[in-house]
Automatic annotation (TrEMBL):
<dbReference type="InterPro" id="IPR036249">
    <property type="entry name" value="Thioredoxin-like_sf"/>
</dbReference>
<keyword id="KW-0496">Mitochondrion</keyword>
<dbReference type="Pfam" id="PF05047">
    <property type="entry name" value="L51_S25_CI-B8"/>
</dbReference>
<comment type="function">
    <text>Accessory subunit of the mitochondrial membrane respiratory chain NADH dehydrogenase (Complex I), that is believed not to be involved in catalysis. Complex I functions in the transfer of electrons from NADH to the respiratory chain. The immediate electron acceptor for the enzyme is believed to be ubiquinone.</text>
</comment>
<keyword id="KW-0679">Respiratory chain</keyword>
<protein>
    <submittedName>
        <fullName>NADH dehydrogenase [ubiquinone] 1 alpha subcomplex subunit 2-like</fullName>
    </submittedName>
</protein>
<dbReference type="InterPro" id="IPR007741">
    <property type="entry name" value="Ribosomal_mL43/mS25/NADH_DH"/>
</dbReference>
<keyword id="KW-0472">Membrane</keyword>
<keyword id="KW-0813">Transport</keyword>
<keyword id="KW-1015">Disulfide bond</keyword>
<keyword id="KW-0249">Electron transport</keyword>
<dbReference type="InterPro" id="IPR016464">
    <property type="entry name" value="NADH_Ub_cplx-1_asu_su-2"/>
</dbReference>
<feature type="disulfide bond" description="Redox-active">
    <location>
        <begin position="19"/>
        <end position="53"/>
    </location>
</feature>
<keyword id="KW-0999">Mitochondrion inner membrane</keyword>
<dbReference type="GO" id="GO:0005743">
    <property type="term" value="C:mitochondrial inner membrane"/>
</dbReference>
<comment type="similarity">
    <text>Belongs to the complex I NDUFA2 subunit family.</text>
</comment>
<feature type="domain" description="Ribosomal protein/NADH dehydrogenase">
    <location>
        <begin position="20"/>
        <end position="93"/>
    </location>
</feature>
Amino acid sequence: MAWRSQLSRNLKELRILFCQTSPSSASARSFVEKNYKDLKTLNPKLPILIRECSGIEPQLWARYDMGVERGIRLEGLTEPQILKALEDLVKAGASHKA
């Protein structure tokens, strides 16, 4: 999973939004618990923002150069699917570079 160390090269910011108690956010919460430390260790200067809000739909947002943002809804996705969604966002960031 070499792409994990590419986050800071292709993204300016990563935001993960989820509800603290909602069953629809369970996999997003679990993803953060299992992957945040590794992602932050590999990308120490990249802002990785975790936003908890009651009743919010789980989402993953990536901000690229020039303020371009792309988001993915995480409701119904498993942890491996969330990891794949993040990988896709990182790879998409390479195409935003000039």
